[in-house]
Amino acid sequence: MFPTFPLVKTLLGSVATPAFAWKNLHTSTARRDIDQAAKYIGAGAATIGVAGSGAGIGSVFGNLVMGYARNPGLKQQLFSYAILGFALSEAMGLFCLMMAFLILYAF
């Protein structure tokens, strides 16, 4: 691993050995399992935003129906606002899904 010089070994004594043991911990099987579990937990937490996106889309179109029922004359304006709300909500859901895939496969 690292070269140990006799002078450093006599001056430091047993102080230098825990650093080597600590370095070996990062390559152990338990450490890789913990990292993999953390990736799965992070990806699961990132996908919660997709459910929020679905709820937002439902809310947008539900309010479109209610607004159209109250004032049919504003059909075009309400529909354009609904499409804008749908696009923004869907984009947030796709960003959450993209982050989940990045956590799983890029890191």
How would you describe this protein?
By secondary structure, the protein is an all-alpha fold. It has a domain of 59 residues: F1FO ATP Synthase, CATH 1.20.20.10. The chain is built from 5 helices and no strands. The mean pLDDT is 84. The chain is rod-shaped and about 70 Å long. It holds the Pfam family ATP-synt_C. Its main location: mitochondrion. It is a multi-pass membrane protein. This is ATPase protein 9.
Concise description?
The protein contains five helices and no strands.
Question: How would the blueprint of this fold be written?
Answer:
Elements: H1 6-12, H2 17-25, H3 29-46, H4 48-70, H5 75-105
Helix pairs in contact: 3-5, 4-5
Index terms:
107 residues; F1FO ATP Synthase; mainly alpha
Q: What's the CATH topology name of the domain at 49-107?
A: F1FO ATP Synthase
CATH architecture of the domain at 49-107: Up-down Bundle
State the share of residues found in helices, binned by percent: over 70%
Query: How many β strands by DSSP?
Result: 0
CATH superfamily of the domain at 49-107: F1F0 ATP synthase subunit C
Structural class, from secondary structure content? mainly alpha
Give the overall average pLDDT: 84
GO cellular component, one term: mitochondrial membrane
Keywords: CF(0), Hydrogen ion transport, Ion transport, Lipid-binding, Membrane, Mitochondrion, Transmembrane, Transmembrane helix, Transport
Domain V-ATPase proteolipid subunit C-like: 41-103
Protein name: ATPase protein 9
